[in-house]
Amino acid sequence: MNALQKNTELIKTEAKRLGFLSCGVSKAEFLEEEAPRLEKWLNQNMHGEMQYMENHFDKRLDPTKLVEGSKSVISLLLNYFPSKEQNPDSYKISKYAYGMDYHFVIKDKLKSLLHFIQEEIGDVHGRAFVDSAPVLDKAWAAKSGLGWIGKNSNLLTQQVGSFYFIAELIVDLELEYDTPVTDHCGTCTACIDACPTEAIVQPYVVDGSKCISYLTIELKNEIPSEFDGKLDEWMFGCDVCQDVCPWNRFSKSHSEPLFNPHPDLLSFTKKDWEEITEDVFKKIFKKSAVKRTKLSGLERNINFLKK
């Protein structure tokens, strides 16, 4: 086994020990196929009010502009599929937001992995990314052989579906690179047929400005009236295109205690949510991603659903 293989093996073994589902590696280089796709998507205003998507266009496509001298993109998946779901008589929250904000959980694991690389392999420089910088997570994960990008534009994996977070370490270390896997969506259109707002405008293209996750989280103004009765009881995020995906039959519960929800989140009824106070909001969502919308955002969404 040569040094490249040995180092790659070391990193993948440590990633598993840290609790990641899987780890893949690709060469840090310009994402040629993604460039025209991203440009077209932005030109068609499918990012809605997510202005940040327009920024750092070149950095999004070229990791060497983010991390000087970078040679490898290490992509990692972390499962968040819960063992228990919300009370059926409830406004719904996307499963990824049940527990502690994933940014904190994953950042710690990535720092540990980078520290391990530096201790075991030597003077390696790199940066950790958890969807908070201009990095095309799904494109890198697909390039690294961790899955394919499905018709709902999520990364899908035959063994575990799609209920996982994607993160990266971009490092100035040469490694052995993985190859992409084939697309296994076939003729299935379950996600396209089930999307309550018809946001999947064609296979593999999602109009972000119509997506329920965008409307309930990213959109800061009032939700447009054209979506009356179409939000399917979602008050934060949406999982419909993942819930109906046949590959998610294989989802297994995560084993990360920090992703376990506050018990009230699972037991609350619609009435409980309608009467939620600032104190209760802070208690249930103490370190949750739901804090992004603040109580006022959650109330806006609930009032829209009640109409």
UniProtKB/TrEMBL annotation:
Pfam families: Fer4_16, QueG_DUF1730. TRNA binds at residue 220. It comes from the Bacteria. Signal peptide: none annotated. Keywords: 4Fe-4S, Cobalamin, Cobalt, Cytoplasm, Iron, Iron-sulfur, Metal-binding, Oxidoreductase, Queuosine biosynthesis, tRNA processing. Binds 2 [4Fe-4S] clusters per monomer. Pathway: tRNA modification; tRNA-queuosine biosynthesis. Residues 173-205 form the 4Fe-4S ferredoxin-type domain. [4Fe-4S] cluster 2 binds at residues 195, 211, 238, 241. It is found in: Cytoplasm. The active site is at residue 131. Its EC number is 1.17.99.6. [4Fe-4S] cluster 1 binds at residues 185, 188, 191, 245. InterPro entries: 4Fe4S_Fe-S-bd, 4Fe4S_Fe_S_CS, QueG, QueG_DUF1730. One of its GO terms (biological process) is tRNA queuosine(34) biosynthetic process. It catalyses: epoxyqueuosine(34) in tRNA + AH2 = queuosine(34) in tRNA + A + H2O. Cob(II)alamin binds at residues 60, 131, 152, 155, 166, 213, 238-239. Its cofactor is cob(II)alamin; [4Fe-4S] cluster. One of its GO terms (molecular function) is epoxyqueuosine reductase activity. Monomer. PANTHER family: EPOXYQUEUOSINE REDUCTASE (PTHR30002). This is Epoxyqueuosine reductase. It comes from Flagellimonas oceani.
